[in-house]
Structure formats: C-alpha cells, structure tokens
Amino acid sequence: xAHTRGRPYHPQTQGKxxxxxxxxxxxxxxxxxxxxxxxxxxxxxxxxxxxxxxxxESLDNLTPxxxxxxxxxxxxxxxxxxxxxxxxxxxxMHYDNRSNLNPMS
Length: 105
What we know:
Blueprint: H1 11-14, H2 16-28, H3 36-52, H4 64-68, H5 72-101
C-alpha cells in the first residue's frame, strides 16, 4: 500500500473520503446539538450505521464491516440463493395463475 497525495478540495482525486465527509455533514446538519456530548453520540451512531448497515455500491452492495471481516462472499452467496429461490417461486406462481385462468385446461 502506498501513500498518495491528491489536490485539496478536489473530490475527484480524494474519492471515497470526500463522499463520506459529505454524507456525514448532511446527517449532522439535520439536527441542532446543544451539548458536545449530543454531537459525539450522533457521530458515533452515524459511523456505526455507515460501517455496519449501509450497503456500498462500490463494494458490491456490501457493508464495509462485512468486507473487512471477510463476510462478503458468504453474503453474496446467500443473496444469489435468495434470488434463485424468488425467481423459481415467481415462475411457479405465473404458471399456476395461467393454468387457473385458462378455461380450456
């Protein structure tokens, strides 16, 4: 891993960290915080949400924690199984409905 420097205030070179900052600022600016502890608590909740619940398109719609703890392939396999089962169920429902609507059968 190599450390690289990008132009300051240039989102195209900074990439993901600039996007993270924008998302965080949008969440923080939604509320008024009267005590520093309230802001810190909200930031901690946001970080937990962002890392453990929010799917990221650049990570194949996985969470950063899932990728970090190497649960990514397991989740992708589960989603593929769910997708195949759903398609099979829809196909069966389609043919069942077709046979029920056809008076000649």
